[in-house]
Specification:
Blueprint (H helix, E strand, L loop, with lengths): L4 H18 L3 H7 L4 H9 L18 H12 L3 H20 L2 H12 L5 E4 L15 E5 L2 E12 L6 E7 L8 E7 L5 E3 L13 E12 L3 E2 L5 H7 L1 H29 L1 E2 L2 E2 L4 H30 L4 H26 L11 H9 L8 H16 L1
Parallel strand pairs: 1-4
Antiparallel strand pairs: 2-3, 3-7, 4-5, 5-8, 6-7, 9-10
Length: 379
Amino acid sequence: MRLTDEQRALRDTAAEFAAEHLAPHAIEWDQAKHFPVDVLRKAAQLGMGGIYLPEDLGGSALGRLDGVLVFEALATGCPSLAAYISIHNMVATMIEKFGDDAQRHRYLPRMSTMDAFGSYCLTEPDAGSDAAALSTRARRDGDHYVLDGVKQFISGAGTSDVHVVLARTGGPGARGISAFIVERDTPGLSFGPNEIKMGWNAQPTRQVIFEGARIPASALLGGEGNGFRVAMSALDGGRLNISACSLGGAESALGMAVRHLSERSAFGTKLSEKQALQFRLADMRTDLEAARTLLWRAADALDQGEETATQLSAMAKRFCTDTGFEVANQALQLHGGYGYLAEYGLEKIVRDLRVHQILEGTNEIMRVIISRRMLQEAS
């Protein structure tokens, strides 16, 4: 697939931002568990706070292929922050697609500038892959809804101003779920402590807790009983973005490995002259290019509204996140003991990329989506 001049310029802009504002501080932010909101707002000044939003709401009105170019480039600087920007954009896109005019104009201009950050509240302590089993409840009380329940693993929680929350308003199963926009200062809304995580330390992850939280009925997003549709609508794009973040992190790790092998000697010769190591580099580069080709194909399918877009997005998510982690892990191995040291940044990339195989639907669930479509077509 041939990129346009505009797409190449877009990718270059994101890469330059990552090199200047993310990469020099990534290790420090990881170790300090620092969420650099000021830097994220600088990204928003370049249009990255509302990548898919229309221009009249402050957005950049870009497509999904444009988006994966941006997220791969950002992730070369810090996969954790690139992934949070993806989540923020996913929340904004749900409000743009399903919100009424009042909701769209209340939240989206501020989200485009990242004066307001977004969080996606779907997962619960006992409802992860089986999203339709969630138990957080929203009870109608006059002109309000009252929310009770706990959301788990919520990126940006405690800092975010806008939460798209999935809660049960009806009976069991997907049809009993509704979506709501909940603001941070809502009485009855609180947050758990920042989770101690393997990676993604540059963004906060907390429980979001609802204890009799009263929200106006106007906070309902997309109509009562349509919450599962709202939630699932965002996942194809989210899976593409997290795939891109995996490739960006892996690309950075591979570049480090090439430089290391070119500079270091052992047994009287440069490591880069060892054919076994040359073969390994060749395989890493080939795997990344294959993953990128699939990702671009899936992003184009989503842009074009192809019927196979969901299946292709699942394929890309499974393949790119597995490949990205493996390439980064191999890059660490090629550094020997130095790869294990925090100052080199490789172990951070490996830790950050590991969770990509879990979130936005585990890679096991991706296989279910892919195979289910195959079996449907065969029947």
